[in-house]
Write a structure and sequence with these properties.
The complex is a heterodimer of chains A (202) and B (181). Chain A contains eight helices and two strands, in the order H-H-H-H-H-H-H-E-E-H. With 202 residues, chain A is mostly helical. Classes of the chains: A mainly alpha (202), B alpha+beta (181).
Chain lengths: 202, 181
């Protein structure tokens, strides 16, 4: 049985069980929105909000939801939070809303969020579910920011839209196209695996 | 699955959908005025960017299947019009605002909204690309790679998006010059 407040539920998502580099979930928005740091940051923030909100709600209602309808219930909960983010962003941050485009509503079917609702929030108390949502959300944000830096810098010569490599620099175009994202993710996963080599090798 | 299980399932789903629906209709109502306002501000900002000398802008006019705003100069004369044009891009419709002066010259072009590939097609919003259309006529509005007379450089890796913008502008100008005759 888990403790009432288990800080591990927060820290696991950050690095060791990072949703991107360990669980390898939610790669679609990661490929699509990591071409520029600004978009990546906006996506990360939206992600933390939706994941935490959905985890808390799922944890509250977990005892009343019969097992055979849990997936549609989770989807409704997630869609509600995503739509709230969608409207609020359109109202208060229209430039970011424009550049995230269709990937914001697509968060409804993101497998990190559904995966955490199913694997964690539906089995744990509210505090731990909130911590798990925050941890996984931050883990995703860190991952998408890391990928965005490694794509925006070689691909456009800029960081947060500010030019850091001189004007004579020829952008490495493939980095801002989807294949660039795959390359960067591959290298980062290799790096993480070599740093924290798992003890029981197969 | 027993009858009881099915009925509890229906009731739980109903309660959750209703709660979610109520919550969302409240959020929608709360953000709607602001979203509309943001859209208006954005459109007005673009109009002013295309016609910096414009003193007064009319409300949106729809006529002959064209949507536009009339721009008046400080002395009250008609300085030009800003048209709303939609053309088919790579990832969906591209909404373009095109400023045209009294002599049907392209005064300026801005992208209102699009769903092109981020980082590639999304560069159609870059001023450097859009300024190429200024003061041009007819076939010179084509992409260089599409026509011998074309003078517009397409964005690297985003030919379809670039062509969508060029086509939209060219078609509008042709339509206007036909109407003038």
């Amino acid at each position: 049985m888990k403790k009432l407040i288990d800080l591990k539920s927060f820290s696991l998502g950050l690095w060791k069980e990072n949703p991107v580099f360990y669980l390898m979930l939610g790669l679609c928005p990661l490929l699509a929105v990591s071409a520029s740091l600004k978009d990546a940051l906006g996506m990360g923030a939206a992600f933390i909000f939706v994941l935490t909100g959905a985890n808390i709600t799922v944890s509250i209602i977990r005892r009343w939801v019969p097992a055979h309808i849990r997936i549609p219930v989770f989807i409704i909960v997630i869609a509600t939070f995503v739509t709230i983010v969608d409207y609020s962003m359109a109202a208060f941050l229209p430039p970011l809303h424009r550049s995230l485009g269709v990937y914001l509503p697509l968060m409804v079917v993101n497998c990190i969020i559904l995966g955490r609702a199913e694997a964690f929030a539906s089995k744990n108390n509210i505090v731990n579910s909130a911590l798990d949502g925050l941890g996984m959300g931050l883990g995703f944000t860190l991952a998408i920011l890391a990928i965005a830096v490694l794509r925006e810098l070689p691909g456009q010569g800029t960081v947060f839209g500010i030019r850091v490599l001189g004007k004579s620099y020829t952008p490495f175009l493939i980095m801002i196209m989807p294949p660039g994202a795959f390359l960067v993710i591959g290298f980062l996963i290799a790096l993480k695996n070599s740093m924290g080599r798992r003890k029981n090798k197969c | 699955m027993s009858k009881k299980e099915i009925i509890t399932g229906i009731i739980v789903l109903l309660i959750i959908s209703m709660t979610s629906g109520c919550l969302l209709s409240w959020v929608y109502g709360a953000t709607k005025p602001r979203i509309d306002e943001q859209k208006k501000i954005e459109a007005a900002r673009i109009n002013r960017e295309i016609f910096p000398e414009g003193a007064k802008f009319s409300d949106t006019i729809t006529e002959n299947g064209m949507t536009y705003v009339e721009v008046y100069s400080a002395d009250g004369g008609l300085a030009g019009r800003v048209f709303d044009v939609t053309s088919a891009g790579y990832g969906g419709p591209v909404a373009v605002k095109i400023g045209i002066d009294g002599e049907l010259r392209i005064k300026g072009v801005r992208i209102l909204s699009h769903t092109e590939t981020p980082g590639l097609g999304s560069k159609i919003s870059d001023i450097g690309f859009l300024d190429q259309f200024k003061d041009k006529f007819g076939n010179t509005l084509c992409l260089k790679k599409d026509s011998a007379e074309g003078t517009v450089d397409a964005i690297t890796g985003a030919t379809i998006s670039s062509r969508a913008v060029a086509d939209g502008i060219k078609k509008l100008q042709e339509k206007l010059s036909r109407a003038e005759k």
